[in-house]
Write a structure and sequence with these properties.
The complex is a heterodimer of chains A (147) and B (77). Helices cover 31% and strands 38% of the residues of chain A. By secondary structure, chain A is of the alpha+beta class. Chain A has one domain: Aldehyde Oxidoreductase, domain 3 (Alpha-Beta Complex), CATH 3.90.1170. The radius of gyration of chain A is 16 Å and the shape is globular. Classes of the chains: A alpha+beta (147), B alpha+beta (77). At the A-B interface, strand 4, helix 2, helix 3 and strand 7 of A face loops of B. Chain A: It catalyses: 2 [molybdopterin-synthase sulfur-carrier protein]-C-terminal-Gly-aminoethanethioate + cyclic pyranopterin phosphate + H2O = molybdopterin + 2 [molybdopterin-synthase sulfur-carrier protein]-C-terminal Gly-Gly + 2 H(+).
Chain lengths: 147, 77
C-alpha cells in the first residue's frame, strides 16, 4: 500500500444536495476533465409486512472501512485513467428521500468515469464494513442486507 | 491471553464490546468456537472476524492483546 494519506469518506447524517452542487462546481477549474459520472444512493421507503421504513441509521467499523476504501481507490485509479474521484457515505440517521451515498468520478472522456463510478459503488457495498439499521415508522427496526 | 472484542450491526445487539482474558484460544477457529459457545445466537448467523483490522479468510493465529471485530454481512450504500 502506498503512503498516501487515507481520506475520510464519512459524513454525519444525510449528504445535502447543496454539498453535491458545491462539489460539482469545484471542478470548473479542472479543465482537462471532459466527463463526470455521479452516483447517489437515496434511502428508499420500503414497505415490509405493512410497515414503512422511515430512516436508515448507519454505523461502520470506521478504521477498517477507510483502509478498505483506500485500497479500492488505489485499484480504481490504476485501472482507469481518472482525473479525480470523490466518495462520501453517511453515518447516523438518514431519512427516506435523503442521500446516503455520493460517488463522483471524472475523466477526460466519459467511459472511464462511468465504468469507475459503477465499479466503486459495487465494491463499496460488498467490501466496506458499514451497516444500515432500517428504522420503521413505529420505531421498530431490522438490519439491512445488501443483495 | 487477552483479547478485545468489538461487535457491529445486528451482532452488537447481543454482544457488548468487552475485554476477555482466556486460555486456550490460539487461533481464530478456536475463538469462533468460544464465541458460539458463549453466544449461541451466532451459530445461525453469517459473520466475519477481523483480527487487528484484517478480515479473516482462513484460520489465523491470535497473539496476546489482539483486537477482534465480529461483523455481520455488510450493508453500506
Amino acid at each position: 500500500m502506498s503512503e498516501k494519506k487515507i481520506k475520510n469518506i464519512f459524513v454525519d447524517g444525510p449528504i445535502k444536495p447543496a454539498f453535491i452542487a458545491d462539489s460539482i462546481a469545484k471542478h470548473s477549474e479542472k479543465t482537462a476533465i471532459g466527463g463526470h459520472s455521479i452516483f447517489m444512493g437515496q434511502v428508499r421507503k420500503d414497505e415490509i409486512e405493512g410497515k414503512f421504513i422511515s430512516a436508515i441509521d448507519y454505523t461502520a467499523y470506521e478504521d477498517l472501512a477507510l483502509e478498505k476504501m483506500h485500497q479500492i481507490r488505489e485499484d480504481i485509479f490504476e485501472k482507469y485513467p481518472l482525473n479525480c474521484m470523490h466518495i462520501y457515505h453517511s453515518l447516523g440517521k438518514v431519512k427516506t428521500g435523503e442521500i446516503c451515498l455520493f460517488v463522483f468520478t471524472s475523466s477526460a472522456h466519459r467511459k472511464p468515469a462511468i465504468a469507475a463510478c459503477s465499479e466503486v459503488v459495487d465494491r463499496l457495498k460488498a467490501e466496506l464494513p458499514i451497516w444500515g439499521k432500517e428504522i420503521f415508522e413505529d420505531e421498530t427496526h431490522q438490519w439491512k442486507e445488501n443483495i | 491471553m487477552k483479547i478485545e472484542m468489538i461487535s457491529f450491526g445486528k451482532i452488537a445487539e447481543f454482544i457488548n464490546n468487552q475485554k476477555i482474558d482466556v486460555d486456550g484460544i490460539a487461533d481464530t477457529d478456536a475463538f469462533k468456537q468460544y464465541l458460539e459457545n458463549q453466544f449461541p445466537a451466532l451459530k445461525s448467523m453469517k459473520y466475519k472476524l477481523a483480527l487487528n483490522k484484517n478480515i479473516i479468510q482462513e484460520n489465523t493465529e491470535i497473539t496476546n492483546n489482539a483486537t477482534i471485530a465480529i461483523m455481520p454481512p455488510f450493508s453500506g450504500g
